[in-house]
Amino acid sequence: MGKNISYYKNTFLSGKINRDVDTIKEILKFDAMLRIRKTFIGKTGVACAAIFIDGMVSSDLISDHILRALVTADTSDDFKAHAESVAENLLYSSEVKSAKTVAEMLSAVFYGDTVLLVDGDTTALVINTKGWRFRSIEEPPNERILTGPREGFDEAALLNLAQIRRRLQTPDLCICPINLGLRTDTKVFVCYLGSLADNELVKAVKEKINAVNIDGVLDINYIAEEICGKDFLFKTTGKTERPDIAVARMLEGRIVIIADGSPVVLTLPYLFSENFQSNEDYYQNWILGSAARIIRFISFAASCFAPAIYISLVSFHAGFLPTFSALSVLKLRTGVPISSLLECIILILVLELLKEACLRAPKDIGAALSIIGGLVLGEAAVETRIISASALIVVALSGLCSAMLPRLRLSILFINFFTSILAGFFGLIGTFTGICVTAIYILGLESFGYDYTLSLNKLSYQNLKDVLIRAKWTDMIFRPDITKDIKRQNNDIKR
Amino acid sequence: MILKGKSVIIYIVVIMLLLCGCTANRELDEQSIVGTVCFSYEDGFIVTAEVLTEDATENKLVTKTHSAKGKTPEKAVMNLSNNMPKRAMFDHCAAIVLSDKMSKEKQIEALRYCVKNPTINLGTPVVYCSEPQSLLKCKSENIAVGYDIIIQLKVLSLERQSRLYKTAQNLRGIEHFENKNGELTHIDKKS
What we know:
The structure holds two protein chains of two kinds. By secondary structure, chain A is of the alpha+beta class. Chain A has 16 helices and twelve strands. Chain A has helices at residues 17-27, 59-71, 83-89, 102-110, 157-167, 199-210, 220-228, 243-250, 280-283, 286-315, 323-333, 340-360, 363-383, 389-403, 409-443, 461-464, and strands at residues 34-41, 46-53, 96-99, 114-118, 124-127, 173-180, 186-193, 238-240, 255-259, 265-268, 446-447, 450-451. The radius of gyration of chain A is 30 Å and the shape is elongated. By secondary structure, chain B is of the alpha/beta class. Chain B has one domain (31-187). In chain B, strands 1, 2, 3, 4, 5, 6, 7 and 8 form an eight-stranded mixed β-sheet that branches. In chain B, helix 3 packs antiparallel against helix 6 (164-170). The longest helix of chain B is centred in the first third of the chain and has 15 residues, at 6-20. The A-B interface holds A 314-319, 323, 326-327, 329-331, 333-336, 339-340, 422, 424-430, 433, 436-437, 440-441, 443-444, 446, 451, 453, 457 and B 1-3, 6, 9-10, 13-14, 17, 20-29, 31, 33, 52, 54, 56, 61, 89, 91-92, 94, 119, 121, 143, 147.
């Protein structure tokens, strides 16, 4: 049974290099990537050993900054070779730390650093020699915009932090490291702006993350689900792959959590109105941004409730339809063997199947899938009277509207099913009950102690200026109520 | 705002829904849209409905006439629905035609039924005709004769006074239409 790093937190170095090297070899005896390079420090004759994992390190850095420096060291006769003096006088590396326990050494080695053991010293040196490969900075495929920055995060947490640091050139930026995962020892960083983030929130988040007791953390979603609690239909934590969004949220007092190995970062607290916000709203003219936002709200309503309203009208309340519309629907539905409820449910399922298939299928098959979806399923099914054209139009409209809100995709799917079933059994009363239940559910949610609908609490221009519309930057004087410092600009204006 | 006890609210809503929700589920294609309904009396109420259906061979909407008799308007309408291949739907009824040969009591009884029927719009115009069934044989430009009646009443600015909720009380304001050589003709009261 393997042991995790914390097992060795009370294991210390003996100071005798051969014994310490044997200890490391014994711990990692099944790791074929372990490398140990022994050498002597210049003319001193003191033995030292560089321990690293092949593939994680940059060989050039080890060769030039460590081994060459040690082997060719021209030291005086009274030079005493121990860890501190070697670090200060001989090594060329930019970052050198010390480690006393085997746990610290293992943690460093597994992250791409090189550990240097010096004979006669119980302190080891941890030298930054990270050289693992990482993806180049690309635009995230799920968060494309037309205007604005196109950088995205990648799997290396340090690089993600560098992207944030580049945008927040302030000493106020706090980055707190935490290691999570008993076997993965994943590096997680909690980032926030000290003068904006609520202290209680920061404390609560850190406590929750430290309380996570899990085998391994491979993605940020592991942390999200562990710390979120009730997070079923609507996400109460935000996720983004864009550094500009992460920074924008930090500037509003939110906390960003970055996990090594995941290009997605977590932002919290996360409010309902953020589902309808896009960073592109802020990079273009405020009128266009506002229009886009209003369209998103309408799309949400249409995508959630259009099939339910259609079912109610066709199955229960045909009198509400204009006569000639009713005649058109009657003509389209004649010969269809299934009820409108079943029609809509089947179409919603087929649409979801198509979406998933297009996402997962290789690119070459994508074109064929769209032909299957459009021609075969759509046109052929209507012509053979398996489904009616009116139901197809309504469900396709709903699907199109849900594509405008990718963050709410699953929520919309559930609400769609729920309200459609209620509509199919209870008509318009069922539809409105579904709407009410959805509204009650949303109003009852909270995200880390803050109301999920916090921005909708007060119906004032200042409160709604960044919710229903995107007001001009000159009007966005105040931040959301979750921050300590409310004023964003024009500090002499009182609220 | 955080709603406490929201689960209780949801339970109450669901229970209320189950107790009083709509249960009359009928698909649109399981019903026949009635464009015009006629009432006459001959040893019992005779209800004639002009129904809009789809002609499968010609692939277009056509009208068909169905009649039924009953002691009361309710029974006559029930018999009508039983006789028809699909259940009659009066939600889109454009006009109600009464036979002027019926006694006033019978006319009022027919109109009262229309008022009580929740599917018939209270704004539906009511007109007289000596032979209501003959009116349905008029040539129609708008599929059903009932729509032609509405258009003519609007042109004459008589639509408002002919509405069901006004005429049902005292039979006033009901205009007269006849079938003259296949044409729907409004008969002026003065003439």
